[in-house]
Specification:
- This is Myb/SANT-like DNA-binding domain-containing protein.
- By secondary structure, this protein is mainly alpha-helical.
- About 55% of the residues lie in helices and about 5% in strands.
- It contains 7 helices and 3 strands.
- Strands 1-2-3 form a 3-stranded antiparallel β-sheet.
- It binds a DNA duplex (20 and 20 nucleotides) through α4.
Amino acid sequence: MEKTKPWHNKETKTLIGIWSEDEVQRELESTVRNQKVFQKISQRMWELGYNRSPDRCRVKIKKLKQDYRRLKEYNKRNGTNRKTKWHDALDAVLGRRAEHVGRSVTAESSTSLLESVMSCNGVEDGGDSDDDVLSVSIDNADDRSRTRISSPILPVTLPLSPGLSSPASSNITAEEPRPTVPRVRGKRRRGHSNHIDAMREIFLMAEEREDRRQRVQQEFEERRLQVLQELEHSAGIREAELINTLAQFNQGLLSVMGQLVSVMASNHSPQPPP
DNA sequence: GATGCCCACCATGGTCCGGT
DNA sequence: ACCGGACCATGGTGGGCATC
């Protein structure tokens, strides 16, 4: 079997950037069948010039998470503070996810949400996140519910769940990684049918989140179009310059050819009889 | 036809291992 | 440290079947 080529830093950075987007995270959390999500990630990678199959993206993310958990476990055991290259970037996502695990509300995940609301005590160390890979900071000037994740690709402002503090600002105590903690997986979970109030609250939260999500998506789309337009514009300018240069060259060439032809014609013109 | 149960299949995530 | 491959446990999915 042919060994797949290793991941370069920029490639990994791009993958983490895409994977860490709120929309992607929400899709990953809301469903067990993640193939379509990873197809989208793979597609985005391809658009950015990296050819990685959905499965390779999935495996890579899996490995990154594994390394993150391992090192965290190691640090906890030994009281050290070792970090992998991508620790902070992963911590920003995994730490955040741990805080609102199951809170990414969709209609399909309402039962899992309910569980998390009923027994929500699993929070994880937010971790510091001063990193050159993905910088996460809080726009606390006017909206504390938003975290700005500056990805190397495009700056995207992602919403946090209501009431959540940022990973950087949270004073949540460190929690060990979740080794084989059963993930709250949608459909198998049943029961909890009596908690109407909780459900109502959840759906209200879902609506609110959906509104925010649409705003973010619109923002992202506008930014993407803007970048595309800029690219097209600069490409157009370059093309026009090229055409202009070519035209000048052709004109010069024709002029030279014309002169050459006239000189040759005058040299070979029949001598008038004496 | 609708519903519920059972079961095989398979996708997924976690873990381990060996190679670079 | 980072990588890919293999294995395993879990649980979602879909089809078949029985019952109403």
